[in-house]
Amino acid sequence: MSENLNIAQEYKAILQTLPPAVQLTVVSKTQPAEKIKEIYDQGQRIFGENRVQELIEKFPLLPNDIQWHLIGHLQTNKVKYIAEFIDTIQSVDSEKLLTEIDRQAEKFNRKIKVLLQVRIAAEETKFGLEISEAKELFQEYLNGKFPNVEITGLMGMATFTDNENQVRQEFLFLKQLFDQLSKLRPLTTLSMGMSDDYMTAVECGSTSVRVGSAIFGRRN
Ligand SMILES: *Cc1c(COP(=O)(O)O)cnc(C)c1O
After folding, report:
1. Residue 213 Cβ contacting ligand 1 at under 6 Å
2. Degrees to nearest 5, angle at CA 15 with 93 and 209
3. Beta carbon of 156 within 6 Å of any ligand 1 atom
4. Which of 13, 10, 71, 61 is nearest to 36 (CA)?
5. Which atom from ligand 1 is nearest to the alpha carbon of 210?
6. What stretches of 152-216 show up as alpha helix (H) in DSSP?
7. Helices (H), 41-130
8. Which domains does the chain show, CATH number per domain?
């Protein structure tokens, strides 16, 4: 069944469930370039990858108007491999990483858009800044500390659970922080929601969802 899944159809079905103002990042990790191209041909331009090695292998195989988003934990020493072309790094989870992104952006004479990834899940395994750290980083940014990055918003991943109420609480929590920070400087992007919970996320104020398996089928 999943072998024959028409991914273009799945993609269009997802798009139809989203309010027009909500941005869709198609998560293409583990998918070959041909499959990404199929979705690209439907008009999609934003794709998310979680590993640098995989991204730099696919990048030259695909059209150059794709806006690549890095959505997974990023090691500081790998920023240099993507700094020239990455559109947005959604997974900034430390000051050290943000400092390096700023440094590399300057080297390539550009600004790199980033989201601060905030830890909202109960699980220990998820990366992300504590609320207080996110606030501090954002304040330093407002004070001019990272002139070559643009913090456009926040990203978060809810707990992996069937308990929709818990997921909702976590999303609402992040939305609250988003509204707080937006008062200091307007933010555009609240990235929350994946295949299993994106509708809940949208109800909680997500402006940007990251969907992979609901389009491509389950990853092996
Ligand atoms: C893999 C991944 C997704 C997409 O997950 P699906 O369940 O396949 O939609 C979204 N966000 C992040 C950070 C991911 O690593």
Report:
1. yes
2. 10
3. no
4. 61
5. 10
6. 164-184, 198-203, 213-216
7. 52-58, 79-82, 95-107
8. 2-216 (3.20.20.10)
Contact yes or no for 102/79 (Cβ under 8 A)? no
Chain-centre distance of CA 92, in angstroms? 10
Beta carbon of 212 within 6 Å of any ligand 1 atom: yes
Cα distance between the two ends of the chain: 14
The pTM of the whole model exceeds 0.90: yes
Determine the pLDDT at residue 124.
75
d(CA 3, CA 68): 26
Residue 69, ligand 1, Cβ within 6 A: no
CA of 211 to the centre of ligand 1 (A): 6
Residue 197, SS3?
coil
Over the chain, what is the mean pLDDT? 95
